[in-house]
Design a protein that fits this description.
There is one protein chain. This protein is α/β, with parallel strands linked by helices. It is 39% helix and 14% strand. An eight-stranded mixed sheet has the order 1-2-4-3-5-6-7-8, sandwiched between helices. It starts with 22 loop residues before the first strand and ends in a 12-residue tail after the last helix.
């Protein structure tokens, strides 16, 4: 199997596609699909619902900055990582520890978005000696009471119909503005974001990636939704890792109240509130988010960090 290449960080390191093909990392729990980007202190990049290693790389390229080694796994139930490796946040957090062990990484920061948030919080709680920083973006820390949108139920039905998915993907590719309307309702913000040569390209890539092997993204997505509908009872006051919370005040998928609870309960937590921001604030307000995330990571990165071993 092809080994992931080591790269020197460059000015564009956090916006390039990274290793196009993932590696299979053998852990004590089983095989984890994983991709890599950049070099430097390790940052575990965790995608949200309907994601996979490709969207974990997208998170690193959108909100991350050069100077760090982003480890981007497909979380359990997504693409090449079986759901059986971790259904609960605790099981997933243990899997991340095993992944770091397999890669020879002593400590890592965790940057998680949306459905990746609960397992990131559990990693910081369950393995405090392995976590040097925590960035939680557009996610939740307690039970979500809001009703699931109709689009979710339609997505579940269409995910198993290959021809229909192809038609949907073709329409999204031909009309990215229409595809972005649900996630960015403000027409001015939507137009500005899509015109941006970097943020717009990254958003379009996210939109299209969901249609790729959609049926293999569904088990993990359904599991993530189930997790958010139950209170995990996180002892947030016990989190010792430095924490940065990034959240849009108009987020409908993950209400802003979740960010307020998280920052109120975790000692020393920082909050970047994106005024009128939606669930996709990392794209609509990318420059601001990236600047703050970069500042946070550089401030807390360990002086020395183990270099990940590369699976072969």
């Amino acid at each position: 199997m092809r080994a992931a290449e080591e790269r020197e960080p460059s000015k564009e390191a956090a916006t390039t596609a990274g290793d196009a093909r993932p590696e299979v990392v053998k852990t004590r729990r089983g095989d984890v699909e994983c991709a890599f980007l950049g070099s430097g202190p390790a940052v575990l990049s965790l995608h949200g619902a309907m994601g996979g290693y490709d969207q974990a790389l997208l998170l690193a390229r959108t909100a991350g900055v050069p100077g760090f080694r982003y480890v981007a796994p497909s979380r359990p139930g997504y693409l090449g990582t079986p759901l059986s490796l971790g259904k609960t946040p605790t099981e997933q957090a243990d899997l991340y520890r095993d992944l770091l062990d397999a890669l020879g990484i002593e400590k890592a920061a965790v940057m998680a978005i949306s459905g990746g948030g609960p397992s990131a919080l559990q990693f910081a709680l369950g393995h405090p000696d392995r976590c040097w920083g925590l960035v939680i973006i557009s996610s939740v820390c307690t039970r979500v009471e809001t009703r699931l949108p109709l689009a979710w139920y339609i997505l579940r039905l269409t995910a198993r119909c290959g021809p229909l998915i192809s038609v949907m993907r073709r329409k999204a590719e031909q009309d990215p503005e229409r595809s972005a309307r649900r996630s960015i309702p403000d027409p001015e913000v939507r137009a500005r974001t899509l015109r941006d040569p970097e943020a717009g390209a990254l958003l379009r890539e996210l939109q299209l990636s969901t249609f790729d092997r959609m049926n293999l993204r569904l088990p993990g997505s359904e599991n993530d939704v189930a997790i958010t509908r139950h209170d995990q009872g996180f002892a947030l006051e016990r989190i010792k890792a430095p924490l940065l919370v990034v959240h849009g005040t108009n987020d409908k998928a993950a209400p802003f109240a979740q960010a307020e609870i998280l920052t109120a309960r975790v000692p020393g937590a920082e909050l970047l509130a994106i005024e009128k921001g939606e669930h996709v604030s990392i794209f609509t307000d990318r420059d601001r988010v990236r600047a703050r995330v970069g500042q946070f990571l550089r401030a807390h990165a360990p002086a020395e960090s183990a270099t990940p071993t590369v699976p072969s």
